[in-house]
Amino acid sequence: MEWGMRNRVSKIIRPNDSRCLMLAVDHGYFLGPTEKLESPSSTIGPLAKYVDSIMLTRGILRTCVNPTIDTPIVLRVSGGSTIIGEDLSKESITTCIEEAIRLNVSCLALSIFVGSKYEHQSLSNLAKLVDEGEKYGIPVLAVTAVGKDMIRDSRYLGLACRVAAELGAHIVKTYYCDNFSSVVAGCPVPLIIAGGKKTTENEALQLAANAIKDGAVGVDMGRNIWQSEYPVPMAKAVKSIVHSNYSSNEAYKGFRDEITSSEIKA
Ligand code: R5P
Question: The domain spanning residue 119 has which CATH number?
Fold first, then answer.
């Protein structure tokens, strides 16, 4: 791996512990103004310093993020379908590599839809994006998206993650599942997990801790952070799992303590 590529990967997966905490705020690209992400700058601003990187589209980056920010950017570059459209799996590459370079991003992200009607299109998008990324030393994060009817088990996710790695993805994002360690074992590049729909803070922290224990290098979490009533304490709690190997109980205690101390100060 060349210097530029290694340097950018190190912005996403931190070299001191090979772990990664990514804040996902790209939901609007197919969902529109998702709850608590209606005003992206208000959501992102207070959280940016507690995460290693932020995943979002160019439109939100350009309009809602201060360009003097230190936090590395993971740019979502696939899209073109919405929740009310024909088929969510029908995506194209929506941002060219020159724009990604102008925006000084550290990583490109794209969804693949293994087993869907547009499987081939999404996989060929990934292969093309990896070729472009390799030319300029920009890593590609493949996101294994699942349709509503697809079972998120280790057999399916293991296949999707392996295919992403075979096509050249440098990092793969998937869902946590039973027997997740077999998904990790079959994927030769680092795996991170998505947080998924909002659950209780305790459950989300358990998910993160289980994923790390089973071999994920980190999490790309969105709704379970910024849809929490206490997003900053939640981001800090997830960080304590990812970077300090806290158990979910220890992290949850930290979350509660943080809320109590902020309430006392107020
Ligand atoms: C969905 O397609 C996006 O890639 C999100 O970035 C991803 O699902 C992670 O966000 P959340 O933790 O809210 O699931």
Answer: 3.20.20.70
Q: Is 173 a catalytic residue?
A: yes
CA 160 to CA 165: how far, in whole Å? 9
What is the extent of the structural domain holding 200? 3-265
185 in Cβ contact with 155 (< 8 Å): no
Half-sphere exposure of 150 (CA within 13 A, CB side): 20
pTM greater than 0.90 (yes/no): yes
Looking at this protein, which amino acid is placed at residue 3?
W
| 180/158 Cα distance (integer angstroms) | 8
What is the rounded distance in angstroms from the CA atom of residue 255 to the CA atom of residue 201? 9
Q: Catalytic pick from 11, 36, 173, 236?
A: 173
Q: What is the tens place of the pLDDT at every residue in 38-97?
A: 999 999 999 999 999 999 999 999 999 999 999 999 999 999 999 999 899 999 999 999
Q: How many domains does the chain have?
A: 1
Buried-state track 16-37, b at ≥16 Cβ within 10 A, e below 16 = eeebbbbbbbbbbbbeeebebb
Specify the ligand 1 atom closest to the Cα of 30. Answer: 2
pLDDT above 70: percentage of residues in the chain: 99
C-beta atoms surrounding 181 within 10 Å: 12
User: Is 90 exceeded by the pLDDT of residue 231?
Assistant: yes
- Centroid of chain to Cα 195: 8
Would you state the pLDDT for residue 106?
Answer: 98
For β-strands 20-24 and 78-79, DSSP reports them as: unpaired
| Nearest by Cα to 59 from 92, 28, 93 | 28
- Atom number, ligand 1, closest to the C-alpha of residue 198: 13
